[in-house]
Amino acid sequence: MAEINHFEYGWITPALSYALSVLGSFLGLVCAGRIRTASTAGQRAWWGLLAAWAIGGTAIWAMHFMAMLGFAVAGTRIRYDIPITAASTLIAVTGVGVGLAIVGTGRLSAPRLLVGGLFTGAGVAAMHYTGMAAMRLDGTLGYDPTRVALSVVIALVAATVALWLSMTVRRGLALAASALVMGIAVNGMHFTGMSALSVHLHERRGELTGTEVSGLLVPIVLAVIFGVVGLIYALLAAPTDEDRAGFAYVDGRLAPDPAGPAPAAPPQPAPDPVGLRARSTLGQPGTPFPSRRDTTPR
Predict the structure, then answer these.
(1) Is residue 111 part of a domain?
(2) Is residue 297 included in any domain, yes or no?
(3) Which of 47, 121, 205, 281 could hold 156 in an S-S bridge, CB 3.0 to 4.6 Å?
(4) What's the pTM value of the predicted model, to 2 decimals?
(5) Is position 60 within any domain?
(6) For residues 262 and 249, what is the distance between their CA atoms, to the nearest angstrom?
(7) What is the pLDDT along the chain (298 residues), one digit of tens a residue?
(8) Residue 76 sits in which domain range?
(9) How far apart are alpha carbons 20 and 11 in whole angstroms?
């Protein structure tokens, strides 16, 4: 059995992976909070997609491969299969998206939350072990069933709690605290699953295909940067509550709200307290013009 090192570069990789999971969780919670306040189905789908990418793509997938930068096996190099790695990304984002779609529509209830947590947790666990299956090394991977089952349970519980937080937490301090808790849960699931791994090296060494994990660093960093910038821009560009008070969305475009406050009526002239205000009837319908005889001085 080969010696495995999960922290080859010390605590820098787990610290960065935790920071990524907290950042993705925070942005995902903010985006998920917009789902229930959205006024149209298109807006709900848009915010759900952004939340799925923030949580699934940044807090889970990017965190996983950032932590894998510090993973090493003595006596063999490690490479990664690109198509399987890309598939793990889709699994993570899709799992979170399905869970948000379940809890984000209709009245939030315990059965709906449990079903959403089941789909999301299964997606998180599947993403982790798909990412592990993408590894190419001179050996055979083995897993301890007990620890694998424990990691799946952690993923299910963490996903359910994350969905509940995404639908209930609104304030900034609570969002930050929730993101910190979610980061602990995601990293706990990852390293629990990694502790279940064992590697038996082959006697004959073959040619390894794929790319080294360092080759994934640039795509991960670029995906995180563009993803985070896009999420922040979307949040800043979203209309505020004051905007919604006077405007409504019509076919995806802002238009004046017909149910908004009615315009003020023009001011009425003050009543004549004495009743002696002169009222000219000259030129009004039915009023004859004076004749020359009437206007001639006598």
Answers:
(1) yes
(2) no
(3) 121
(4) 0.74
(5) yes
(6) 18
(7) 888 988 888 889 999 999 999 999 999 998 888 887 788 888 888 999 999 999 999 999 999 988 988 899 988 888 898 899 889 999 999 999 999 999 877 788 889 999 999 999 999 999 999 999 999 888 889 999 999 999 999 999 999 998 898 888 878 788 889 999 999 999 999 999 999 999 998 877 667 777 877 777 777 777 778 777 877 878 777 765 544 454 444 444 545 545 555 555 555 655 555 444 444 444 455 555 455 555 555 4
(8) 4-250
(9) 14
- 3-state DSSP of the chain: CCCEECCCCCCHHHHHHHHHHHHHHHHHHHHHHHHHHCCCHHHHHHHHHHHHHHHHHHHHHHHHHHHHCCCEECCCCCEECHHHHHHHHHHHHHHHHHHHHHHHCCCCCHHHHHHHHHHHHHHHHHHHHHHHHCEECCEEEEECHHHHHHHHHHHHHHHHHHHHHHHHCCCHHHHHHHHHHHHHHHHHHHHHHHHCEEEEECCCCCCCCCEEHHHHHHHHHHHHHHHHHHHHHHHHHCCCHHHHHHEEEECCEEEECCCCCCCCCCCCCCCCCCCCCCCCCCCCCCCCCCCHHHHCCC
Residue found by looking up tokens 């198509």 in the block: 83
- Residue 213 in any domain: the answer is yes
Q: How many domains does the structure of the chain reveal?
A: 1
Assess contact for 197 and 143: CB atoms under 8 A.
Answer: yes
